[in-house]
Design brief:
This protein has 105 residues and is mainly alpha-helical. It has one domain. The chain is 80% helix and 0% strand. α1 runs antiparallel to α2.
Length: 105
Amino acid sequence: MLVQGKRASLASRLLKLQLAISYILYFVVISAVTVNMLFLSNWWARLIPPEMYPVPVNIQNVVGVGLILTLILLHNAFLVALRQLKKKAEAEKRKETETFDKPAS
């Protein structure tokens, strides 16, 4: 029972971490895109090459992909933790039903 509690707390922590990473992903990438869009909306933006944007496109792409991959890994770990909890609960339930089904001798 203690192991199941640890796995439940691990799943809870993974969910909170996943939510935090998704908020970071949203605000960092969307703010970088917004800054670049505001920068590009000026008349002199056509004179400047893309390498000189306030947030370089390559850095923006690397940060975005890195955060998305981190989010995918955390989500997979969360699903594995939940699957292990489910298997453990099913095994305990099966064990309880087996003990109740045995005839007393």
